[in-house]
C-alpha cells in the first residue's frame, strides 16, 4: 500500500491490520535484554500484574532489581519499557519504515514482554500507535465503532474501560502489525510468551499546547498592555460582568494569540522538541573545533543525533530556525533539513553543508545534541 493511500484512507480514521508487515521477523532484542534495561536507573519501566480471581491490576514502577524477574510466574504479567529505541540501535531501526511521517511526530518505541495471559487491560490511547508483533502470539480485540464506550473503571491502578465490546478479533503472529488511531478501544492478551514493539506518536493535548503558548506569551509581555473598556456606557448593575465586558475580553484574548505563521512556527518548533524530552542529551566534557571534527570525520567517524535529542526546523523568512530540545539557532533551509533528518553525516555530507550549517553542527555537537559515532571496529 502506498503511504499516500494509508494516510488518506486510514491515518487517524480507521484501524488497519497488516499481515507480514515486518516479515521475516527477527527480534532486535531478547526478553533478557529488556529485563536488563528495565533495571537501568534512567529507564522508564513498568511491571503490570493481573490477579484474575480478584480482577485486580497491580503496577510497579522501575527501575527494578535484577532478582525481581526470576521469581515471577509463567502467566498474567507484562513488563513494559519506554524509549527503547534511544537505548538500542536495532530497535531504533524499526522507525525506518515510518519515514512517511514527520520525524517530530514520532515519539518512541515501547517494548513489552508478556507472559502467557499478560495484558494491560482494555483501554484507549490518546495518540496513534503501530503495534508490531515480535516473538510469540498476541490476541488483539478492538472496538472500531464510532460510538465505542469510553467510561473508565474506578479503583484500578490502570486507566481501564468500564465496558468493552469488541468489533474485531485478531491473533497477530511475528512480523504482523496493527495500526490504531487515537481513542480506539483495544485489548491485547498474550497467548504465549511474546514481545510487542509499539511505535507511538507525539500528540500534545490542547491543554498542553495552551499552557506552553501562554508561558511563551507571558515571557514576551512586559505587563503594560491591560484590559481596557473605553467608551463603555454607565453600569446598570455594578456587580455584573455584562455581555459587553465578555465581548471585549473575547476580542482581547483573540488578539493575544493571533500570531502570524512565522511566530506560530517558531513557538511550536520549540514546544514540540521539548515535549516529553527527558533532557538526557548533555554537553561533552571537551569541545571540538572545526579542525578536530574534520579529523574525526576523515578517519571514518560520523555525526549523528544524540538518541534522546529531539530535532526539528521551521522556515524563518528566507532562512530557517533549527530546534534541538526547545532551543533554536539560525541556519539555511537546506542545512537545517539535513541536520534534522536524523540521518548520520559522514565526511562528504559535512563538507557539503553551508558554513552556517557547519556552525550549527558544531554548536549542537558541543551541546551534546549531536554525537560522534565511531567507525565500526575503531578503537
UniProtKB/TrEMBL annotation:
Matching Pfam families: JmjC_2, WHD_ROXA
- Any stretches that span the bilayer, and where are they? none
Region Disordered: start-end pairs: 220-240
The Swiss-Prot or TrEMBL record lists the needed cofactor(s) as: Fe(2+)
| The keyword Iron belongs to this UniProt entry's keyword annotation | yes
- Start and end residues of each JmjC domain: 90-218
Q: Which domain of life is it from?
A: Bacteria
Alphabetized, the UniProt keywords read:
Dioxygenase, Iron, Metal-binding, Oxidoreductase
List the protein's name: Cupin domain-containing protein
Q: Which organism is it from?
A: Pseudomarimonas salicorniae
Amino acid at each position: 500500500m502506498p503511504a499516500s493511500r494509508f494516510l488518506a484512507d486510514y491515518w487517524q480514521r480507521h484501524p488497519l491490520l497488516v499481515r507480514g508487515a515486518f516479515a521475516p521477523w527477527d527480534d532486535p532484542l531478547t526478553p533478557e535484554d529488556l529485563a536488563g534495561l528495565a533495571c537501568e536507573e534512567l529507564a522508564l519501566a513498568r511491571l503490570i500484574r493481573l490477579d484474575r480471581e480478584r480482577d485486580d491490576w497491580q503496577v510497579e514502577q522501575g527501575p527494578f532489581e535484577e532478582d525481581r524477574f526470576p521469581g515471577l510466574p509463567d502467566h498474567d504479567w507484562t513488563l513494559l519499557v519506554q524509549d527503547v529505541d534511544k537505548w538500542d540501535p536495532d530497535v531504533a531501526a524499526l522507525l525506518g519504515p515510518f519515514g512517511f511521517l514527520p520525524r517530530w511526530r514520532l515519539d518512541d518505541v515501547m517494548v513489552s514482554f508478556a507472559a502467557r495471559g499478560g495484558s494491560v487491560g482494555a483501554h484507549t490511547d490518546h495518540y496513534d500507535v503501530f503495534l508490531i508483533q515480535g516473538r510469540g502470539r498476541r490476541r488483539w480485540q478492538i472496538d472500531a465503532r464510532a460510538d465505542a464506550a469510553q467510561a473508565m473503571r474506578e479503583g484500578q491502578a490502570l486507566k481501564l474501560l468500564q465496558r468493552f465490546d469488541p468489533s474485531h478479533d485478531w491473533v497477530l503472529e511475528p512480523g504482523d502489525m496493527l495500526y490504531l488511531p487515537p481513542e480506539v478501544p483495544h485489548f491485547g492478551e498474550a497467548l504465549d510468551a511474546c514481545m510487542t514493539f509499539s511505535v507511538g506518536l507525539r500528540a500534545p493535548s490542547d491543554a498542553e499546547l495552551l499552557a506552553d503558548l501562554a508561558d511563551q506569551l507571558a515571557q514576551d509581555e512586559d505587563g503594560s498592555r491591560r484590559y481596557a473598556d473605553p467608551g463603555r456606557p454607565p453600569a446598570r448593575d455594578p456587580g455584573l460582568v455584562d455581555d459587553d465586558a465578555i465581548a471585549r475580553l473575547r476580542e482581547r484574548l483573540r488578539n493575544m494569540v493571533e500570531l502570524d505563521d512565522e511566530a506560530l512556527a517558531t513557538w511550536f518548533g520549540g514546544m514540540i522538541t521539548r515535549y516529553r524530552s527527558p533532557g538526557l542529551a548533555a554537553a561533552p566534557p571537551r569541545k571540538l573545533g572545526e579542525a578536530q571534527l574534520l579529523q574525526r570525520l576523515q578517519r571514518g567517524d560520523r555525526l549523528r543525533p544524540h538518541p534522546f535529542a529531539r530535532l526539528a526546523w521551521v522556515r524563518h523568512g528566507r532562512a530557517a530556525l533549527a530546534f534541538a530540545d526547545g532551543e533554536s539557532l539560525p541556519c539555511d533551509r537546506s542545512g537545517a533539513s539535513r541536520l534534522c533528518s536524523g540521518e548520520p553525516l559522514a565526511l562528504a555530507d559535512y563538507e557539503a553543508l553551508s558554513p552556517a550549517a557547519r556552525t550549527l553542527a558544531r554548536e549542537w555537537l558541543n551541546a551534546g545534541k549531536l554525537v560522534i559515532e565511531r567507525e565500526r571496529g575503531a578503537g
